[in-house]
Design a protein that fits this description.
Laminin; secreted; alpha+beta; Jelly Rolls; about 25% strand; seven-stranded antiparallel beta sheet
């Protein structure tokens, strides 16, 4: 609800005063300005009126109260007739109390509105501040008030902006003008006033300070040159202020809490009628009992109502406490912990912030609410057993299972009131301890029977832990816990420390990738944080957690056994009723790579329920998160040793509108210095071995870290120069420190090196210390060498720092003044010495500071001899002025040029002390540049000659530069040798003025308290004299010249007309004859009323010469007919001559000097009068101090320091500040800051980069059009018309419904474009529309969106709107300047920062270029799209060097120009924060976690690449398949699996796993193998896998002949049935035969006899003697015959080799034919080369297969040969024929059959191969030539198009320049012709004048008497017609003509450099023509008058002759 009183006119009830009102000092007359202005209705004569404040006539009184009485009367100030001080009049309004002012309206009456004035405000009437300034002109806003004018109607950009305007100070209207000043409307927060605006508009006193009356321009000129007292009163009476009405619109300040503010008649003050539970005169505080929220002023949008405190009905008093509000500890009446109301004076034994708890000795039972009428009951604590009478007050105070009302018992006592003995104690009320320990015994009653100890407890009373155990606890079934001690010892005891609380929180998901800040911030102490689920779910998933701040993290082993306590609750703010609750783990602790959590069941929390949870930090309460696996004591302690994250569940409901709260979080941690009550016995204190510390030996002692121990799980430390990663003891790894061998130790967590040696420093000992240089990364002791600047000895080492440059070697950084060179090895200019010799140094040259440093070598660098002094100085020590100079070279150092006049001096050398030149005769002056008095310079004679003035007829013997004397009255001529007649005028008697002296002239006491004739000065004069005791000083007014003896407060007397001076004791200018009553006016109007103040004789103004006193004397300027001429005062040192410009007074300066008088150094020079060049670097200097055309910048005159841009330093502004780079002229800051993604501040400009262009690809002929938000896209209506992409808007808008629309650039303009910085984005646009201005005109021209994931930005660029039908090219610099953030008003938005701009370039998402222009578009086009990027290359005309790209000095792990990439061996972590800086926008680069087995990993996923040492896994964390071991970082971590042997033939399992510390088990034994190492065969298999080459073979036992048991595991012998035999039991025993599946005995009566006969035959055969000749081997021959038949079949005609060779030959012939055809086709058609090559390859494959077939055939023949050889050996026959047959078969047959065809085939194959190779080479050459030709053709086409465009542009510019040149020459010729004609006419006029004035009068003297009357009449006629004045006008016009000609010459000179401006030339020609016409007209008149005079003269002579003839 808007509660604001109505806006009233506050001026009605105000007290108004002023310091001046007309008629206060008596009656005065005033006239209205409107009656004196031409064109206004006027009365004749004007009516003037009387103002008299003491008059009885009402309309003659104009008091200040008339301005606010609401009537048609007005207030009026005294006119400036009464004095110029009445320009300054002040009106003050006292509103009686402070109001909010909305506007002030001032209405003028019978005079114009004030000119210059200030509207001011005040709260106390003493200190005033401006509201608004008003000025006559915009210029006066700057000159008078130093404020930029606001043109047009007043407007405001800020709520408290004070502007200056001339809008209300115009002369019109002359009456009844109004001034409207709005203080609220039009300001930014007018609709909802801000605090700034409310303070700006608050005022009690309003002051109108008038400072200048608005006058007519003509009168203004008069006031500027005359004292108002000297101006006619009819003018001064009409200028005064008049105000008809002052309205002040305002309202009571009721702070937005009252709708009415009535006036109290008793106090005459307005009082607010407060609402919203507010009180006070201005409703400025909350009423009692309503302080839940802080008081706030109501606005138009927010009412800020005071809220009642929630004291549960126990009190009505409260106050607001901000600290309580910050901690969310105060409950409001809505049940929310919002606000800071604190209740006081609670009743009914209640206490607390909301009277929610009880006082000491009382408690609130469980279930009783705080708003119960009597909630608190008295405690009933037994005085014997309780500690004190205070019990647990409420549920919040309950701990350890206690309830409200329970008392705090002493040791041995128990019960609600402590009136019982505790378990283990007996004998109430004494309660003595029993013999058995309650904690350590298993007795049901510790007081009965012998003690039975728990498992880990010992002692007679079961009261102590066994060795290696600690922490005896009752609830531990084993009594004590085993010592953990990080596995380093088993000796520990439980601590006797006590727990302390830790308080100190954000919201996150379980992985920790996202973060949200809660609603309230941390302020220490107990907290209450809250988060809206709606806000959290914008970022976080369904289930999220509170994440603890740093005090809860790190080493928390002392927290073991302690309690984590916290209070949670949540509300449902929406309409949700029954919503399902979420069950998840309440606590998650993460550390050492392990995440553990409490039960998944969690807390069942209902809405609006507040629950306090206590979690004991014990292993058995936690499981591995996400599983049900229990946590071991070792894992639990490892997590506590380095907690990375501690999470408390925030979400308990699926309700979307929930608000979750967390408060009262505390974590108990043991502290030996804590004074808490709870003993931390669960914390072990171990006796750690050397090298370890901490309660559980979890810390490594750096002192003993150098012990040489192996890095295993049992290791106590790492090797020297290694670190234990993250300090992890169990499962940790040791990796080398990155210290380059310069440190022994590094930090386990950060890896930073400690105690760097060998002059190194930095986090990784990777930098040399100051004073040393080198490359520390080489890793030797001599990496950093002592700086030699130039020597290493201290006496000759002049630079404290140096560095190593890769190109130039050692560079010293800070050579002191006087030293130069890269190593300070030589003396600088102005210094001498030998710094390379031990003990040598550089000292200043003793040249009196007069060396010319602009020339190198001005002082000898070895001897110190002065060689080149400053200009004008010479001598051995530059101690005196050189010839041609004078002055003192030592002290003032003012040697100046003599400037001896060449004509007047004997030589150019002058006196070295005085500067006096040696003059020629009759020449005087220091420079010999003046003639003696009465002499003048004769140019033709080159010396001074006498003036020749007539001593009687001239005023003096002196003459002017032309030799003309000053004649007395009645004489004329150059030497005053002629007499002339002067027409005498009738003298009118001088009008006298009577002065009426007041009757009370003397003795009247003025307002100053001094008597008449005296005044009280502001500051008493410091002279001696008589003064009255009251400090009054006599006026001493001259009685003749003053109107009275009175004077003003400054001692100025009131002078008579024509009298001047402070005492009125002399005549004013233009008056003479000082006497009583004043002075007489001079009658010298033609000389500016300059006359002798005594005689009144007319005299020339000072410093003028010429007959008419119309010229300035030499070395004077600024001729004024009244004041004469002013001295030039040109500088002796800086000016070329003493003569200045006669019009401007500006002297002609030497090149190094400037200023009107050449008294300053020219911009670019300093140290006047020497004026040394500043040598400021233009690119680094503030442009406001530079002249861009001259390329010179000014500097501080005393020091030569140039005015550097913000990021530039150095005397000459020639280098970037530290952390900056890229000095660039167009950069307003000079240098760019090092961006480097926030990783470093050290960078430089990248070298070796060139600019290349990104353009559209050939296939990208159509670009899509999109809307501004990329919601819709289309290519409909978009076509390519070379060279433009054209869009038909009518078709486009069918898909895109709204404007503006944009062209979207393709993908090559997206992605990482950091190297585009400093380049340009170029394009050309064209459009056709009905109107140029439309809806989209003010939308951004270019939109770019991009950035890393956490810092995505959209930036825009506004450009000038193109014109309809005109191709417009835009070139946009890709720097942050001129870019704005999207959505900001372009008039007030801020420029994009460099950091944000670089963020966008890091990853450009898209670039949009506006296609919408004008209104009702028909067509839009775009072309010539390109963007410059940088890449490495050589500089050329087409590829210029790239500037402004940074090359950062990246820290370890980062690479890229801007450190945007991770170095090899590092990967990117997710960014930690998405907020504003500080902090890198990208994630940190961390070293690859590859366990020392790889140096490379994926930079984004961190997955290791190329794992070595037989490791595998994402982090090389496990052994690869076939290897086993524990990966710890050693190359020998993984050993090959021996399953059972390592050789491939006996390694039967591809994988194995470690088992124990040094053993393994093979995991993939193939079938048939078994054992830990696959070392034996499985049942059913046989063999010996442990023997090289051995394996397990499946038993091949005959299923019918063998028993069903495995064969022998080694030999494979099967176990046969009784009748079977053989290795596999497949055979039958002797005299047994197979019958089906069985062996049956066959020794019967029939078969048995046959078998016996066969046995006998066999015996007989064997008994034959075979030692004799061998019988024919028929059996073998039969076998050979069978083999021969098989061979014959194989060698049948179809399969014979001859047939095959024939086929091969045929194929070869065909192949050759095809090859010839292919070669022919290849020669004719190169385009088919690729297909032919494929055919040739296929043919080659056929030839290869044929060759392979032949080889196979040969191999078969060789096999036949081998068989034959074997057969021959078997037969061993002597038959030569058989042997020959065999040999023929073996050798000759195959050779005959295969030899020849094979050789031919090989020859053909080789020939084909050669031809194919030759053909392939030719085809490849042809293809390369075609590719190169195509590339060159494309490049030539592109260059041709560019050249054509450039030639067209150049030709157009050439034609335009030629046309302009011809026009300029033509105009100049016309001007010269006109000028010649004007000069000719001027010469004729001068000739005519000379004829008139210089005609020899003596020839007509005899008839002078007769012609006297006619001559007098003629002279009178000439004077009446003002012929001299017309001649003077002609001369003036001729001078103007010369000036115009000079202007034209300047225009022509400018046209020669740039294109000629035809408009300027035409105007110049028009002006010349007008001037010439005017000159011709005046010249004609003058000539006519001259002809009349000549004619009259001739007529009189004829009459005289005729008269003589008569006599």
């Amino acid at each position: 609800m808007r509660l604001f009183p109505a806006v009233l006119n506050l001026a009605v009830n105000a007290i108004i005063t002023t310091n001046a009102t007309c008629g206060e000092k008596g009656s005065e007359m005033y006239c209205k300005l409107v009656e004196h202005v031409p064109g206004q209705p006027a009365r004749n004569p004007p009516q003037c009126r009387i103002c008299d404040q003491n008059s009885r006539i009402p309309h003659q009184r104009h008091p200040i109260t008339n301005a606010i009485d609401g009537k048609n009367t007005w207030w009026q100030s005294p006119s400036i007739q009464n004095g110029i001080e009445y320009h300054h009049v002040t009106i003050t309004l006292d509103l009686r109390q402070i109001f909010q002012i909305a506007y002030v309206i001032v209405k003028a009456a019978n005079a114009p509105r004030p000119g210059n004035w200030i509207l001011e405000r005040s709260l106390d009437g003493v200190n005033y501040q401006p509201w608004q300034y008003y000025a006559v002109t915009d210029t006066e806003c700057l000159t008078r008030y130093n404020i930029l004018p606001r043109r047009g109607p007043p407007s405001y950009a800020k709520d408290d902006e004070v502007i200056c305007t001339s809008f209300y100070s115009k002369i019109q209207p002359l009456e009844n003008g109004e001034i409207h000043t709005s203080l609220i409307n039009g300001r930014p927060s007018a609709d909802d006033p801000s605090r700034v605006l409310l303070e700006f508009t608050s005022a009690r006193f309003i002051r109108l300070r008038f400072q200048r009356i608005r006058t007519l321009n003509a009168d203004l000129m008069m006031f500027a040159h005359k004292d108002p007292s000297e101006i006619d009163h009819i003018v001064t009476r009409r200028y005064y202020y008049s105000v008809k009405d002052i309205s002040v619109g305002g309202m009571c300040i009721c702070s937005g809490h009252a709708r009415a503010c009535p006036l109290d008649p008793a106090t005459n003050r307005s009082t607010c009628q407060c609402e919203h539970n507010t009180c006070g005169e201005s409703c400025d505080h909350c009423c009692p009992g309503f302080n839940q929220k802080p008081w706030g002023a109501g606005t138009f949008l927010v009412k800020s109502e005071c809220e009642e405190c929630n004291c549960h009905g126990k009190t009505k008093e409260c106050y607001y406490d901000q600290n309580i509000a910050d901690r969310n500890q105060s409950l409001n009446i809505h049940g929310e912990y919002t606000g800071g109301g604190v209740c006081i004076n609670c009743t009914h034994n209640t206490a607390g912030i909301n009277c929610e708890t009880c006082t000491d000795g009382y408690f609130r039972p469980k279930g009783v609410l705080p708003d119960d009428p009597n909630p608190c009951q008295p405690c009933s604590c037994d005085p014997v057993g309780s500690l004190h009478a205070t019990c647990v007050k409420d549920e919040k105070c309950a701990e350890g299972g206690m309830l409200p009302g329970f008392c705090h018992c002493k040791t041995g006592y128990a019960g609600e009131s402590c009136n019982l003995c505790a378990l283990g104690y007996k004998g109430y009320p004494d309660c003595v301890a029993c013999s058995c320990s309650v904690k350590g015994s298993l007795n049901d009653d510790p007081c009965i029977g012998s003690c039975i100890c728990k498992e880990n407890v010992e002692g007679e009373n079961c009261d102590r832990c066994k060795p290696s155990f600690f922490n005896l606890q009752q609830d531990n079934p084993r009594g004590c816990e085993e010592c953990f001690c990080s596995g380093k010892t088993n000796v520990c005891i439980d601590s006797h420390w006590t727990y302390r609380d830790m308080s100190g929180w954000y919201l996150t998901d379980v992985p920790g990738l996202l973060q949200v800040t809660p609603q309230q911030d941390s302020f220490g102490g107990p907290q209450r944080l809250s988060i809206s689920n709606v806000a959290a779910r914008r970022v976080l998933p369904l289930i999220y957690y509170w994440s603890a701040p740093s005090p809860y993290l790190g080493n928390k082993i002392p927290a073991a056994g302690g309690h984590l306590k916290f209070t949670i609750s949540y509300d449902l703010t929406g309409q949700e009723e029954a919503v399902q609750t979420i069950l998840q783990s309440d606590i998650i602790i993460e550390g050492a790579g392990l995440r553990i959590s409490t039960s998944k069941e969690g807390i069942h929390l209902q809405p609006f329920e507040e629950h306090t949870e206590e979690v004991v930090l014990k292993p058995d309460l936690f499981t591995v998160h996400g599983t049900d696996s229990p946590v071991s004591k070792r894992e639990f302690m490892t997590v506590l040793a380095n907690i990375k994250r501690l999470l408390i569940r925030a979400t308990y409901s699926y309700g979307m509108s929930a608000i979750y709260r967390l408060s009262g979080v505390s974590l108990e941690a043991a502290d030996r210095y804590s004074t808490g009550r709870k003993v931390a016995s669960a914390v072990e204190v171990c006796q750690c071995p050397p090298g370890y510390g901490g309660t559980s030996c979890e810390k490594k002692d750096q002192v003993n870290a150098s012990s040489n121990l192996t890095p295993t799980n049992k290791a106590k430390s790492c090797w020297p120069r290694h670190r234990r990663v993250n300090g992890t003891i169990f499962g940790g790894i040791c990796e080398p420190c990155t210290c380059f061998g310069h440190a022994e130790f590094c930090d386990d967590l950060t890896g930073e090196c400690m105690d760097c040696k060998y002059n190194t420093g930095g986090p990784y000992c990777d930098r040399c210390l100051p004073g040393f240089y080198g490359d520390p990364t080489k890793g030797t002791n001599e990496d950093c060498q002592l700086c030699a600047c130039p020597l290493t000895i201290p006496s000759n080492n002049f630079s404290p720092t140096c560095h190593l440059d890769r190109s130039h070697g050692l560079i010293c950084d800070e050579c002191p003044p006087g030293y130069a060179g890269p190593r300070c090895e030589r003396c600088a200019d102005g210094y001498f010495g030998q710094p390379l010799i031990p003990g040598g140094s550089c000292r200043p040259c003793q040249c009196n500071d007069n060396l010319d440093f602009s020339i190198p070598g001005s002082c000898d660098s070895l001897s110190g001899a002065c060689l080149i002094c400053k200009p004008g100085i010479t001598g051995q020590y530059c101690e005196r002025c050189a010839d041609g100079y004078f002055g003192d070279a030592l002290d003032p150092k003012n040697c100046q040029l003599c400037h001896c006049n060449i004509n007047g001096s004997v030589s150019e050398i002058c006196n070295s002390q005085t500067g006096q030149c040696e003059c020629r005769p009759n020449v005087v002056g220091r420079r010999c540049d003046e003639c003696k008095p009465n002499y003048l310079w004769a140019p033709e004679k080159q010396f001074c000659i006498p003036c020749g003035c007539s001593p009687l007829r001239s005023m003096s013997l002196r003459c002017d530069m032309s030799g003309r004397c000053i004649c007395k009255s009645g004489f004329m001529g150059k030497h005053c040798e002629l007499s002339r007649q002067v027409h005498k005028r009738k003298e009118n008697p001088r009008a006298t003025q009577q002065i009426q002296v007041p009757s009370q002239r003397w003795g009247f006491t003025g307002t100053s308290g001094c008597p008449r004739g005296a005044y009280r000065p502001v500051a008493l004069p410091g002279t001696f004299g008589l003064q009255s005791s009251r400090g009054c000083v006599p006026c001493n007014c001259n009685s003749f010249g003053s109107k009275s003896f009175d004077c003003d407060e400054n001692g100025q007397c009131h002078c008579q007309p024509g009298v001047a001076g402070k005492k009125c004791d002399r005549c004013a200018h233009g008056f003479y004859n000082f006497e009583e009553g004043g002075c007489t006016p001079c009658e010298c109007s033609h000389l500016g009323n300059n006359c002798d103040p005594v005689t009144g004789r007319c005299v020339c103004p000072p410093n003028t010469i010429g007959e008419k006193c119309d010229k300035c004397a030499p070395n004077y300027w600024g001729h004024d007919i009244v004041s004469g001429c002013k001295a030039c005062d040109c500088s002796v040192v800086g000016s070329l001559s003493f003569q200045c410009n006669s019009d401007t007074g500006c002297c002609s300066c030497h090149p190094k000097f400037s200023g009107d008088k050449c008294t300053q150094c020219r911009p670019g020079y300093w140290k006047y009068p020497q004026c040394i060049p500043c040598d400021c670097l233009l690119a680094g200097t503030d442009p406001q101090t530079c002249d861009a055309e001259m390329e010179k910048c000014s500097c501080v005159d005393g020091t030569g320091q140039c005015s550097c841009k913000v990021n530039v330093e150095g005397v000459h502004c020639d280098r970037c500040r530290s952390g900056m780079f890229g000095l660039y002229a167009k950069n307003p800051l000079g240098c760019n800051s090092c961006y480097c993604f926030g990783l470093t501040t050290r960078c430089s400009e990248a070298k070796g980069l060139i600019r290349m262009w990104l353009t559209l690809k050939p296939d990208q002929m159509v670009l899509p059009l999109v809307d501004e938000n990329l919601q819709d896209s289309t290519t409909r209506g978009v076509v390519f018309q070379h060279p433009e992409i054209v869009a038909n808007i009518e078709l486009v808008m069918q898909d895109l419904q709204s404007e503006p629309i944009y062209w979207k650039l393709p993908e090559q303009f997206e992605g990482r474009k950091l190297t585009a910085y400093g380049g340009k984005l170029k394009y050309a646009i064209y459009f056709e529309a009905r109107e140029e201005t439309g809806f989209a005109t003010y939308n951004p021209q270019v939109i770019i969106r991009g950035g890393p994931p956490t810092r995505i930005r959209t930036i825009i660029r506004h450009m000038a709107a193109p014109l309809i039908g005109q191709l417009t090219r835009h070139e946009i610099e890709m720097t942050e300047h001129e870019w704005r953030y999207h959505g900001d008003d372009p008039r007030v938005s801020s420029t994009v920062t460099r950091e944000d701009f670089m963020d966008v370039l890091y990853n450009i998402h898209y670039i949009l270029i506006k296609a919408s222009h004008g209104s009702i578009m028909r067509q839009s086009r775009i072309s010539e799209i390109s963007m410059e990027v940088a890449e490495e290359g050589n500089v050329s005309g087409m590829s210029p060097r790239a500037h402004l790209i940074e090359k950062c000095d990246c820290p370890l792990g980062y690479s890229g120009l801007s450190c945007e990439a991770c170095s090899p061996g590092f990967y990117r972590l997710p960014p930690r924060s998405s907020g504003r800086r500080p902090g890198p926008t990208l994630g940190t680069c961390a070293a690859c976690q590859c366990h020392g087995h790889s140096n490379m990993c994926d930079p984004e996923t961190s997955i290791c690449q190329n794992c070595r040492h037989n490791t595998a896994g994402d982090h090389c964390e496990r052994c690869t398949v076939g290897f086993y071991g524990n990966v710890r970082g050693s190359p020998e971590d993984c050993h090959p699996c021996a399953c059972p042997l390592t050789i491939p033939s006996n390694n039967f399992s591809p994988s194995c796993v470690a088992e124990g510390l040094s053993d393994y088990r093979c995991t993939a034994c193939p079938p048939g193998y078994e054992g830990q190492y696959c070392e034996r065969c499985s049942p059913g298999f046989s063999g010996d896998p442990r023997t090289p080459g051995g394996s397990c073979q499946e038993c091949e036992c005959d299923p019918y002949g063998s028993l069903p048991i495995p064969c022998d595991p080694v030999t494979g012998q099967c176990t046969c049935k009784p009748e079977s035999t053989g290795w596999t039991c497949a055979g039958c025993k002797h005299q047994h035969v197979r019958d089906g599946v069985e062996c049956i005995f066959c020794d019967d009566e029939c078969i048995g006899l046959l078998l016996s006969d066969l046995d006998r035959l066999n015996q007989m055969t064997l008994s034959v003697n075979l030692s004799g000749p061998l019988p024919p081997p028929y059996k073998m021959l039969y076998g050979f015959e069978n083999t021969t038949q098989e061979l014959k079949h194989l060698l049948s005609p179809q399969r014979a080799p001859e047939r095959l060779l024939q086929l091969a030959q045929k194929n070869l012939d065909t192949l050759v034919t095809e090859m010839d055809e292919l070669l022919t086709r290849a020669t004719k058609v190169t385009a088919d080369g690729e297909q032919t090559g494929q055919d040739a390859e296929r043919t080659n494959e056929r030839a290869t297969s044929l060759g392979q077939f032949i080889k196979d055939t040969l191999q078969a023949a060789e096999a036949v040969n081998e068989n034959a050889v074997k057969l021959n050996e078997t037969l061993r026959i002597q038959d030569k024929t058989l042997e020959k047959s065999l040999q023929a078969l073996q050798i000759e047959g195959p050779q005959k059959l295969f030899g020849e065809p094979t050789e031919k085939n090989e020859e053909l194959k080789n020939e084909v191969r050669d031809k194919m190779a030759d053909y392939k080479n030719k085809v490849d050459d042809a293809r390369d030539l075609l590719r190169e030709a195509s590339s060159k053709i494309r490049e030539a086409n592109r260059l041709s198009a560019i050249n054509q465009r450039n030639m067209t542009m150049i030709e157009k510019r050439k034609q335009a320049v030629e046309s302009s040149r011809q026009e300029a020459e033509k105009t100049l010729k016309e001007g010269n012709d006109i000028l010649d004609e004007a000069s000719r006419l001027a010469n004729e006029i001068n000739l005519a004048v000379e004829v008139i004035y210089l005609r020899d009068i003596t020839t007509i003297q005899p008839i002078a008497d007769e012609l006297k009357d006619k001559i007098d009449d003629l002279a009178q006629d000439i004077q009446d017609r003002m012929l001299p004045e017309k001649v003077l006008q002609a001369e003036n016009h001729a001078a103007q003509l010369n000036e115009s000609s000079a202007i034209l010459d300047g225009i022509l000179a400018e046209a020669k450099n740039v294109s000629f401006n035809a408009t300027v030339a035409f105007k110049a020609y028009s002006n010349i023509k007008d001037y010439i016409d005017e000159a011709e007209r005046i010249a004609r008149e003058a000539k006519a008058r001259a002809n009349e005079a000549i004619c009259c003269n001739k007529t009189s002579r004829q009459e005289q002759v005729s008269f003589k003839s008569m006599f």
